[in-house]
Specification:
The complex is a heterodimer. By secondary structure, chain A is an alpha/beta fold. Chain A is 35% helix and 16% strand. Chain A has 13 helices and 10 strands. Chain B is α/β, with parallel strands linked by helices. Chain B has helices spanning 3-19, 39-52, 73-81, 106-122, 141-151, 176-192, 203-212, 219-222, 242-246, 260-264, 269-278, 290-293, 298-305, 315-330, and strands at residues 25-29, 60-65, 86-90, 126-133, 158-161, 231-232, 237-239, 253-254. In chain B, the strands form 2 sheets. In chain B, strands 1-2-3-4-5 form a 5-stranded parallel β-sheet. Chain B has a 3-stranded antiparallel β-sheet with strand order 6-7-8. The chains are: A alpha/beta, B alpha/beta.
């Protein structure tokens, strides 16, 4: 089993306690990037910085210094394209992915534009309902388009990791797959996902519990929660796309087929990708 | 099976292997439910193997079939000593088919099943599922297929037809045509995505048969089971296989009285072998699927059709499935007629 990566806020006392551990730092303040780089790289294995901000991407003060670390920028929208386009030269030198919310209609087109400008990008799922038709169109562009374009997540993660005989959890793209990432807050409360952390649903407390977390009853139970889908015979357990979705849209799946159609198409796209392309090429941090 | 009989079984196996240095024994522990026996039982069995098969144990392979609901760490520790790394199991997503009590509490049963699965996973064991297709399955073939391939992504399921001989008290039996149609509803999806679900049986087997001319067949269709299988019951009584033992079809004598060599050479087995010469001249004469089924299970033939020298009724399922679904979907054609004159089983050799 590979080392669990800790997703934590930029909180110096906590980070001090996470010395020698792989970490992702969450912040909503772009001005903290430089101090984070200054503080963290000395004693921690900085995996990435996750910036969550309401500031449109066009207004983010991208900086030369950011070249030193993988950055996942989560913003609700792209903003002024006129302003954004002048940042392209720098952006192409950064190891950055720009994530836009699924909740804004304009973002589906903006992600196509970002990708065509060779900016690695992705969609993140905001509050339901998801517009699955738009999502499917975006996925089709991401996987099937033959024009040169940058990867769009989480589609790229799925198609480039999909193999017949294993599950692919695209939550890794969002640092939210508890087999790879766990979340910890300033109070050292530990949760399996960012949502669980927000909901105060903790697996353990204290940095000292991290090393034994994977063998703990709570963690094992959490990891095996997927089995409830099968015991309860929920719609997701009968879905052809279970192995790439694993019930992430369970409430929706009980009511309509939108997610099922989308994820089934994504699996077909993964088959297509495997046939068409080699696994070589640019590797970014999530893969 | 008492300790005394288990010990005797290992003595008999050792005698047989010493007498036949080129042979191996594949020992399948199959209930009922083997978990009911408990770890101590298997620990003793292991000691008997160590004691009596010191020089031959490398030629003994063990398999276990279990519903996993009674799996324990102690059992897995013993299975590991037997070098067992995979456990065959079964599952049914349809409620109230399996489970304890009159109403078959499948929820309780399935939770216990997953507890067993988790133990296997933690111990590095793999597991696979056999799904027995019954009357209630017929309404949802694709759902069942997806459910089972989701349930265990690494090991694909095997679809078998339910066997009901005599009165069908629970109304679960299905016809050959219904079984073929069940498989046929799944097959186009499997064929399109066979790289995702590479080893779903019987589809993968049929494909290997027809496309690759690889006629590696299971006991029922191999035409070669006659002198290779032995069922040993709780009192040491023996029969051809589980089906033969369950229905009292064949009786080769008690292992207390006969050696393994004698039991495997029992002259009643010649009747089973004889099918491979008789059927190509009679019922299976013009069948181009002969090489894929060899007349089917002889015990099935005896139970349904009334004699070992008849073809099994289950052959119809194969034939219907191949003609109605497999061949049209794949564009492949099966052509394995029986050899014309001698009845010699060319495909099995």
């Amino acid at each position: 089993m590979s080392e669990l990566i800790l997703v934590c806020p930029y909180h110096k006392p906590l980070i001090d306690k996470l010395r020698q551990r792989a970490i992702v730092i969450r912040t909503n303040d772009c001005n903290l990037i430089r101090p984070i780089l200054h503080t963290v790289n000395k004693s921690n294995k900085l995996h990435a910085i996750k910036i969550e901000t309401d500031t449109p991407a066009s207004k983010i003060p991208f900086d030369d210094d950011w070249k030193r670390i993988p950055i996942a920028l989560y913003t609700s929208r792209l903003g002024s394209f006129k302003a954004f386009v002048h940042k392209l030269a720098l952006l192409r030198q950064l190891n950055i992915k720009i994530f836009l919310s699924s909740g804004e209609e304009e973002n589906y087109l903006n992600l196509c534009i970002l990708s065509s400008l060779r900016i690695a990008c992705g969609v993140y799922f905001s509050e339901p309902p998801v517009n699955w038709e738009r999502m499917n169109d975006l996925m089709h562009y991401a996987v099937y388009s033959r024009t040169i374009h940058a990867p769009i997540e989480p589609f790229y993660y799925v198609v480039s990791n999909f193999e017949g005989e294993k599950q692919v959890d695209y939550a890794s793209v969002y640092f939210d797959n508890p087999l790879r990432y766990i979340h910890i807050n300033e109070k050292e409360q530990i949760a399996a996902t960012s949502k669980d952390l927000e909901a105060c649903s903790y697996l353990a407390e204290g940095v000292s519990s991290i090393d034994s977390l994977e063998t703990s009853t709570q963690y094992r139970k959490y990891i095996n929660n997927w089995q409830d889908f099968f015991i309860e015979r929920r719609a997701c357990s009968f879905c052809p796309a279970w192995r790439i979705c694993m019930g992430k849209f369970r409430e929706e799946a009980e009511q309509n087929e939108g997610c099922r159609v989308f994820f089934r198409d994504l699996m077909d796209a993964a088959d297509y990708y495997r046939l068409q392309f080699s696994q070589d090429g640019k590797k970014v941090w999530q893969s | 099976m008492s300790d005394e009989v288990v010990e005797l079984v290992f003595q008999r196996i050792n005698e047989y292997l010493e007498l036949n240095p080129e042979k191996k024994v594949l020992f399948t522990w199959h209930g009922g439910e083997v978990g009911l026996l408990g770890a101590d039982y298997f620990r003793k069995a292991f000691e008997f193997q160590e004691k009596h098969c010191a020089t031959t144990k490398s030629r003994i392979e063990h398999l276990v079939q279990s519903n996993l609901t009674l799996m324990t760490q102690e059992l897995l520790d013993i299975f590991r000593l037997f070098e067992i790394r995979q456990i065959g199991s079964s599952y049914d997503p349809i409620p109230s088919i399996r489970g304890p009590g009159r109403n078959r509490d499948s929820d309780f049963y399935n939770r216990k099943f997953f507890e067993g699965v988790n133990l296997l996973n933690e111990n590095g064991f793999t597991w696979g599922v056999i799904y027995v297709v019954h009357r209630k399955s017929l309404q949802m073939p694709l759902d069942i297929f997806h459910f089972l391939t989701n349930l265990n992504i690494r090991t694909c399921p095997n679809f078998n037809r339910v066997n009901v001989y005599g009165e069908d008290k629970n109304n679960i039996s299905i016809t050959s045509e219904e079984f073929a149609d069940f498989l046929g509803a799944i097959f186009p999806v499997w064929w399109k995505h066979r790289e995702r679900y590479p080893n779903v049986r019987p589809f993968a087997g049929f494909t290997e048969n027809v496309r690759d001319k690889n006629l590696s067949l299971v006991c029922e269709t191999s035409g070669a089971c006659s002198h290779e299988w032995l069922y040993i019951g709780p009192e040491g009584e023996t029969s051809q296989c589980g089906r033969g033992g369950d229905y009292g079809l064949t009786s080769y004598g008690n292992i207390r009285k006969f050696s393994l060599q004698e039991l495997l050479r029992n002259e009643q087995r010649d009747r089973l072998a004889m099918r491979q010469q008789v059927l190509p001249q009679t019922e299976c004469k013009d069948c181009r699927f002969w090489g894929m089924c060899h007349g089917g299970c002889p015990l099935d033939a005896c139970l349904i059709s009334g004699g070992f020298l008849r073809r099994a009724e289950s052959c119809d399922a194969l034939k219907i499935f191949m003609e109605k679904y497999f061949e049209p979907v794949t564009g492949l054609r099966a052509d394995f007629p029986p050899p014309p004159s001698t009845g010699y089983n060319a495909y099995a050799h």
